[in-house]
Known about the structure:
Blueprint: H1 40-44, E1 58-63, E2 80-85, H2 90-93, H3 112-115, H4 131-140, E3 157-162, E4 164-165, E5 168-170, H5 171-182, E6 199-202, E7 204-205, H6 212-225, E8 228-232, E9 250-255, E10 280-283, H7 296-299, E11 304-307, E12 326-330, H8 336-349, H9 355-364, H10 400-411, H11 429-437, E13 469-473, E14 483-486, E15 489-492
Bound molecules: calcium ion (3 copies).
Amino acid sequence: MPDDPYYPATAPGSGQWWLRRVSGSDGNVLADRLRGVAGFEAAWSTGIAGSLGDPSTIVAVLDTGITSGAYAHPELAGKVIAGYDFVSEVEYANDGDGRDADPSDPGDWVDHGDLANPAFAGCLLEASSWHGTLIAGQIAALTNNGQGVAGIGWNTQVLAVRVAGKCGATVSDIVDGIRWAAGLPVVGVPIINPNPARIINISFGGDAACNAEYQAAIDEVWNSKGAIVVAAAGNEHAGLSRPASCDKVVGVVGLNRDGFKNNYSNFDARDSNIGAKAVIATVGGDDDGADSGLWAPYLADDGILTVDNCGSTVPRMPSTCPNGPYAFLFGTSFSAPIVSGAAALMLAVNKNLTAQQLVDGLKASARPHVTSPLIGTCSWDNPGRCICTTSTCGAGILDAEQALRYAEAVRTDQPYTAPNWPTVVLDNPEIRAAVQVSPKDRDPNPPVADGSTSKGGGGGGGATGIGWLILLALATVELARLRLRPTARVRRS
Ligand SMILES: [Ca+2]
Ligand SMILES: [Ca+2]
Ligand SMILES: [Ca+2]
């Protein structure tokens, strides 16, 4: 176990349960059940060379940028490579110009002054999200350094590729960012990325169908650079967002810590062949704030604890954050980096894995979805907390240790055989109490159709014992100007 003080179960909010070993049974209370986690602590303990990551294995974080300079998070010191800033529209960029070579996150708040500008029609009033920094922390926070939190890749580096400013991101900036991150040339950008990433994390989504522009970039980096895109499913308890829905993309569905689909995650009940796609599931926090389903009082968890910046507009120096620069997070935004981080460990074990082998390995090593006689399976009629199947949430539950064993088997030219997993059947007092309230967690939800739908952010003031604030429940909304919203819900200190 790493020595970071926020890691153990004795830390506030039960610490970083999302990194711990798979464990627990119906005999444990929810806080002690970890049947949905990836089990990084077990992966780190395998002794397989590379299981702590490798600095040459780089994960591109296509996001709001990452705080830097005086505002850099101390837990990301030496772990972030400055890539490029692809935010092309000056009115949203918030750094005074269009594209540039500095991907620092200047903040993405939207205030009343912004909303008075017609360019911000459809945007929401909100504080800065620090979305890219949060995700970088999950993947690469300094680990076993006696401070703060642990990250997935003790030696993994992240590449900051800024694609999102105020009010989200545009598809054209995202697809240029995908190409550049993988090492391909982009028209108008004077430098080719000297630190190409083979894993590209996109915790953004829109509710339109995958289009040719997206698919072309995804195919190009897969074919020419062996790079994979890992993308969040989205948070509307509806169909997969794009680019998670695109071919070859590893779409990531969010689970509760106990292994069933969480209240908000998107899934797919249209495509009976989804199990054959690259989709996989892992935890993302299961919140008890607004729009969190009828069962939230019984089944919500404490969220994904990682680094944060507490500035509500411009970044703050982390040392000045009143409750420390850390936050508990909820959203498929924070499920996707768990898969990206696992893929980076796979590549650290075996750099020769192809893009196809990365996807095949994640799927072949996944644990079966949990079952329950008490909770119904996921469907459009039952889109809240529900039991995943390979027809709705992909190949299974991410298993970090087994993913590494797959990578090691390929490296040593051995066949990989998945364990003979026992079937996990959930039947415990919390679930029984929840279904007493209602047979389903929430009402039927129409599948997301192509084009825009009306969705709003939800707020909420709840707190745990130590005063964390639920900031905002953000939806993945594609707005009038094709700006995509981050798939995040943040409970911030
Ligand atoms: Ca700029
Ligand atoms: Ca910039
Ligand atoms: Ca640390």
